[in-house]
Specification:
With 59 residues, the protein is mostly helical. It has two helices and no strands. The longest helix has 35 residues.
Length: 59
Amino acid sequence: MEVQKKISSSNTPDFFSEEMILTKKSLNENKLKFTYQKQLISDLDFKHKEWSKSIDRKF
């Protein structure tokens, strides 16, 4: 009983939320979207660096 009281009275935030439910499918979809966006940003960064090199050569 003492252990249970200590756990329930601790000031740590809850791991879950009563108001929000996420399915495994939605988590996987969000992860895929994030991965895709990260790749697009990485590609854009690479293209920008290449473009800036070509601009530097012209001037």
